[in-house]
Amino acid sequence: MNKEIPDSTYLLITELIYYGHMELVRQADETLSQKGFGRPHYRVLHIIKNNPGMTTKKLLLHLKITAASLNRTMNKLIDAKYILQKNDLNDRRQRHHFLTKSGNDFQEKIYSLQKKVLKDAFDKVEGESLESFIKVLAYMISEDDHSLLSVPIPF
Fold it and tell me: Where are the domains positioned within the chain?
């Protein structure tokens, strides 16, 4: 981009991302807290939903957290019967994770709340704005992390 962007525009964008994220997770947080869960639980459900059979090692790479943090979160989701763990047939040290029907239903419920926030916002802007918005978000994360996305970036 050739045009100089004023600092106030960067400040505005930073605040819009912050408050937009707050709105994106507000209803999700309420729904999660009703079950005694938080955002880490939803992140695990989301990633496993889009990567069924994912191993613990790959899940740690996606989440960028420690094994201890993951264990606390996973144990709660397993106890709630939202996640099923299966040992690898060839290497019993590896576990594969799957959502149960109730885990899938709960993940879908939260995702639908977030999708509605995004849909309502995108309904108010032109179609080309969506592509530009996706590009900006994609360029905000490292190229290495693009491989972690469930859906490929369309450019």
Answer: 7-146
Identify the residue whose tokens are 């459900």. 45
Residue written as tokens 């994360």? 141
**Assigned CATH for 7-146:** 1.10.10.10
Q: How far is 110 from 106, CA to CA, in rounded Å? A: 6
Residue tagged 């709630």 (tokens): 80
Q: Which residues contact 47 (CB under 8 A, 6 or more apart)?
A: 54, 59, 62, 63
Which amino acid, residue 145?
D
* 61 close to 47: Cβ distance less than 8 angstroms: no
- Taking the chain (155 residues) in runs of 10, the rounded mean pLDDT of each run is 83 94 95 96 97 95 92 96 94 92 98 95 83 90 90 86
What is the enclosing helix (H) or strand (E) of 132?
helix 127-140
